[in-house]
């Protein structure tokens, strides 16, 4: 729902039932979008699992490195999403548009940079994972094809974030559905070889992913241009250092948080790899099944970020708190249901990916543990979105550092390797970390010291009026 197509403040100041409805109108399209985004990875793993476990491990290791790239791209998206939502809540339309375009400039630069890193350092980066030679060769091929054109990944993250910041979660959802249907069909054709297309295996999966991301970028540009709020202005493509500073001040801690998470993930992935290729493959498969539940949490986190961000921008702090509480309870309830399904159906889900009884059993054990901590994961995701909406990305970064390194990575080694619990110990460690961080965020939220209100900026220096459309006075009012 595009909140800015109506009167947002009148719409958002609702009764409990009205707030639930608004949250659902934003969350459901975001859940669907996230589901189809995740479907890219799910389809790749499913199709490639029919080739062999070495191929599954190669894609899993590559995705662990890609997650670091995603961390940067998502951080730019988070910063843009929040700044756009804050600006629109304060009814500063031109400020929102300007920040959105500045975020796109930043995404292009980082997309080109990560592509260059992949071109020259793909194999050395994968070697950090301690992979077997066969897995390393497969992973290098997949990594280069998927990540050299990283600019399309980056643009997709930020274009979608801009739309969501403007209250439009439907357009990213539509784009996601289209590109993932095409990705699934193209992936099948290129992986296994159909008609005139040769069998390409893992390379086919990679090329299908790249093609779908290029298409997704074009579709999202179209939706941004259709938006009355986000339509591009030629003069806004000039780099504005004040807005870049604003994006960096909010995005840098968010990037730091995700980088810390992914760096820790690479370390404990190395521990899992030491347990054997089949164990690592089981871990990757379990993660690809569990991520379906994640998508519910991310959808509600998106709704909370948009609604709380707009209310904070408008100065309605109590309303921001109210939307956060309601959204968090809703997410926890739904992810509790998803957790129950994971607990009960884990082994069945594993059997879709492997015929090996040992691998299926390990997947089932992992998903049983995962099912127990899903409600806590919902709290963690949703409250993190609220903190971001309140311009507070530093505390989640510090908390992630403590949780990932002092708890998760240490416990993965202690339980999984030292005590010999294997994959079961790994997933218990993950659950303990999630419960710890969710608890800390909840306590800080209840105490009311979770916001970081931004400083005023020199609005006149930010104005770029178009003479045929607005005066300097109009521009200042918009900022």
From TrEMBL:
<keyword id="KW-0812">Transmembrane</keyword>
<feature type="transmembrane region" description="Helical">
    <location>
        <begin position="292"/>
        <end position="314"/>
    </location>
</feature>
<feature type="transmembrane region" description="Helical">
    <location>
        <begin position="204"/>
        <end position="223"/>
    </location>
</feature>
<dbReference type="Pfam" id="PF01554">
    <property type="entry name" value="MatE"/>
</dbReference>
<feature type="transmembrane region" description="Helical">
    <location>
        <begin position="142"/>
        <end position="163"/>
    </location>
</feature>
<keyword id="KW-0813">Transport</keyword>
<keyword id="KW-0050">Antiport</keyword>
<dbReference type="InterPro" id="IPR002528">
    <property type="entry name" value="MATE_fam"/>
</dbReference>
<keyword id="KW-0406">Ion transport</keyword>
<protein>
    <recommendedName>
        <fullName>Multidrug-efflux transporter</fullName>
    </recommendedName>
</protein>
<keyword id="KW-1003">Cell membrane</keyword>
<feature type="transmembrane region" description="Helical">
    <location>
        <begin position="175"/>
        <end position="198"/>
    </location>
</feature>
<feature type="transmembrane region" description="Helical">
    <location>
        <begin position="22"/>
        <end position="47"/>
    </location>
</feature>
<feature type="transmembrane region" description="Helical">
    <location>
        <begin position="366"/>
        <end position="386"/>
    </location>
</feature>
<feature type="transmembrane region" description="Helical">
    <location>
        <begin position="266"/>
        <end position="286"/>
    </location>
</feature>
<keyword id="KW-1133">Transmembrane helix</keyword>
<dbReference type="InterPro" id="IPR048279">
    <property type="entry name" value="MdtK-like"/>
</dbReference>
<feature type="transmembrane region" description="Helical">
    <location>
        <begin position="59"/>
        <end position="82"/>
    </location>
</feature>
<keyword id="KW-0472">Membrane</keyword>
<dbReference type="InterPro" id="IPR050222">
    <property type="entry name" value="MATE_MdtK"/>
</dbReference>
<feature type="transmembrane region" description="Helical">
    <location>
        <begin position="103"/>
        <end position="122"/>
    </location>
</feature>
<feature type="transmembrane region" description="Helical">
    <location>
        <begin position="326"/>
        <end position="346"/>
    </location>
</feature>
């Amino acid at each position: 729902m595009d909140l800015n197509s109506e009167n947002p403040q009148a719409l958002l100041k609702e009764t409990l039932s009205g707030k639930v409805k608004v949250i659902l109108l934003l969350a459901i399209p975001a859940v669907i979008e996230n589901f189809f985004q995740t479907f890219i990875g799910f389809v790749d793993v499913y199709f490639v699992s029919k080739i062999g476990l070495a191929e599954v491990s190669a894609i899993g290791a590559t995705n662990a490195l890609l997650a670091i790239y995603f961390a940067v791209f998502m951080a730019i998206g988070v910063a843009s999403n929040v700044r756009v939502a804050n600006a629109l809540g304060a009814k500063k339309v031109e400020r929102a548009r300007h920040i959105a375009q500045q975020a796109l400039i930043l995404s292009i630069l980082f997309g080109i940079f990560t592509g260059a890193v992949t071109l020259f350092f793909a194999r050395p980066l994968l070697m950090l994972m301690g992979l077997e030679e066969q897995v390393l060769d497969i992973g290098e091929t997949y990594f280069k094809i998927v990540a050299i054109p990283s600019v399309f990944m980056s643009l997709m993250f930020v274009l979608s974030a801009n739309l969501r910041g403007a209250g439009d979660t439907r357009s990213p959802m539509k784009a996601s559905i289209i590109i993932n249907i095409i990705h699934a069909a193209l992936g099948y054709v290129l992986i296994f070889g159909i008609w005139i297309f040769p069998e390409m295996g893992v390379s086919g999966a990679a090329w299908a992913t790249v093609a779908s991301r290029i298409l997704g970028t074009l579709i999202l540009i179209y939706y941004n241009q259709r938006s009355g709020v986000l339509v591009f202005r030629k003069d806004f493509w000039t780099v504005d250092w004040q807005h870049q500073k604003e994006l960096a001040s909010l995005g840098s801690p968010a990037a730091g948080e995700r980088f810390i998470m992914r760096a820790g993930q690479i370390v404990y992935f190395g521990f899992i790899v030491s347990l054997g290729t089949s164990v690592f493959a089981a871990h990757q498969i379990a993660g690809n099944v569990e991520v379906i539940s994640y998508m519910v949490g991310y959808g509600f986190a998106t709704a909370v970020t948009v609604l709380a961000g707009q209310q904070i921008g408008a100065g309605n702090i109590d309303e921001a708190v109210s939307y956060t509480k309601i959204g968090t309870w809703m997410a926890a309830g739904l992810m509790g249901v998803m957790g129950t399904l994971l607990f009960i159906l884990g082994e069945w889900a594993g059997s879709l990916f492997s015929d090996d009884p040992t691998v299926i059993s390990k997947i089932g054990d992992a998903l049983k543990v995962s099912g127990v901590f899903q409600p806590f994961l919902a709290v963690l995701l949703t409250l993190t979105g609220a903190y971001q909406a309140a311009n507070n990305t530093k505390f989640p970064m510090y908390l992630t550092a403590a949780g990932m390194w002092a708890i998760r990575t240490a416990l993965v080694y202690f339980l999984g390797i030292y005590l010999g619990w294997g994959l079961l110990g790994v997933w218990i460690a993950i659950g303990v970390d999630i419960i710890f961080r969710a608890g800390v965020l909840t306590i800080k939220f209840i105490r009311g010291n979770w916001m970081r209100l931004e400083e005023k900026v020199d609005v006149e220096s930010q104005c770029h009026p178009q003479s045929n459309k607005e005066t300097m006075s109009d521009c200042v009012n918009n900022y």
